[in-house]
Amino acid sequence: MIRTIDAYLDRLFDLVAGTGASGRRLLNETEGHLNAARTAEMAAGHQGDEAEARAIARFGTPEQVADAHLAAGRLPLPVALARLFAAAFFFFGCTGVMFGLSGALIAGFTALFGPEFVAPDSVHALLTPERCAELSLLRPDAVSCAAASNAQHVADTGFGLMRLGVIGTVMLAGFGLARRIGAVRRFTILPNATMVASVGAVGFGLVAFSGLGVAVLLALDGARPGIGANLAFGLSGLIAFALFLPAAWNQLVRDRHA
Questions:
Q1: Nearest-angstrom CA–CA distance, 129 and 188
Q2: Among 47-56, 93-102, 134-143, 202-211, which is the least confidently predicted range?
Q3: Which has the closest alpha carbon to 102: 208, 205, 197?
Q4: What span, in angstroms and rounded, lies between the C-alpha atoms of 147 and 92?
Q5: Which residues in 17-43 are b (16+ Cβ under 10 Å) and which e?
Q6: In Å, how far are 102, 118, 161, 210 from 106, measured between CA atoms?
Q7: Average pLDDT in the 59-63 region?
Q8: pLDDT tens digit string along 99-141?
Q9: CA distance 247 to 250
Q10: Alpha-carbon torsion (63, 25, 14, 40), positive or negative
Q11: What is the pTM of this model?
Q12: pLDDT in tens, 5-27
């Protein structure tokens, strides 16, 4: 929850950036109203941060003020496209990190329970003698061609997912750095906070539900092989869901009581 006027104005600036003179007027007017409300709260006996927090509570959230302002005039196309780009970049980064976490979990499950727990050799009928010979060179300790295929598949999948995790981490780090650079900051302004948090919670929640659901079904069927991959995706999706859920819930509660 925003409790200081400076933080409030910073958030409002992000939300109305690119709207030109009308956005600047909104910021100036909002700052004036908030300062006046703070003065009134101080006159009523409230001091410091408490006075600012009460002034903000009376005025409404930055999202509400920005929404009302943008509803009064059309958002310029370049601004809308920049915000869509920022949202896509941000979610691609988050998804990459989620994939990286699932890759790490796959590696952990493999070490604990073996590669067949993660990746069953569902295509053993296609394992030709030539392919088995190749796999035996890659996995000389495997007891069978199918076991070698599982081990190699797990290694390729786990490392591939962890590479995506590195890419996602770099993307998010770059996104955070770009927010501090004035020349490109407009390309890092996300759309409405409620939408961003809700999309993240719903999207990663679906990943968690599907991954964990399939893992449970496999376990109920007594099919130990393959549970680990679905469990890894489900758990990584659940962690991402848990990170987005509080923000989504808080935004929805504030909107409901607005």
A1: 53
A2: 134-143
A3: 208
A4: 34
A5: bebeeebeebbeebeeebeebbeebbe
A6: 6, 7, 9, 17
A7: 81
A8: 999 999 988 988 888 777 887 654 444 666 777 777 677 777 7
A9: 5
A10: negative
A11: 0.66
A12: 888 888 888 887 766 677 788 88
Dig out the tokens for 132 from the structure.
């088995």
**Residue type for 227, please?**
I
Burial environment of residue 186 by CB neighbours within 10 A (0 to 12, 13 to 18, 19 or more): middle
pLDDT digits (tens, 9 = 90+) for 205-230: 999 999 999 999 988 887 666 788 89
SS (H, E, C) the chain: CCCCHHHHHHHHHHHHCCCCHHHHHHHHHHHHHHHHHHHHHHHCCCCHHHHHHHHHHHHCCHHHHHHHHHHHCCCCHHHHHHHHHHHHHHHHHHHHHHHHHHHHHHHHHHHHHCHHHHCCCCCHHHCCHHHHHHHHHHCCCCCCHHHHHHHHHHHHHHHHHHHHHHHHHHHHHHHHHHCCCCCCHHHHCCCCHHHHHHHHHHHHHHHHHHHHHHHHHHHHCCCCCCHHHHHHHHHHHHHHHHHHHHHHHHHHHHHHCC
For tokens 């310029």, what's the residue?
76
Cα-based distances in Å from 174 to 63, 97, 138, 160, 206: 25, 14, 37, 21, 27
Provide the token pair at 28.
């100036």
The answer to whether residues 103 and 164 touch, using CB atoms and an 8 Å cutoff, is yes
Kindly state the tokens that stand for 206. 């679906």
Instruction: Give me the amino acid identity at 124.
Output: H
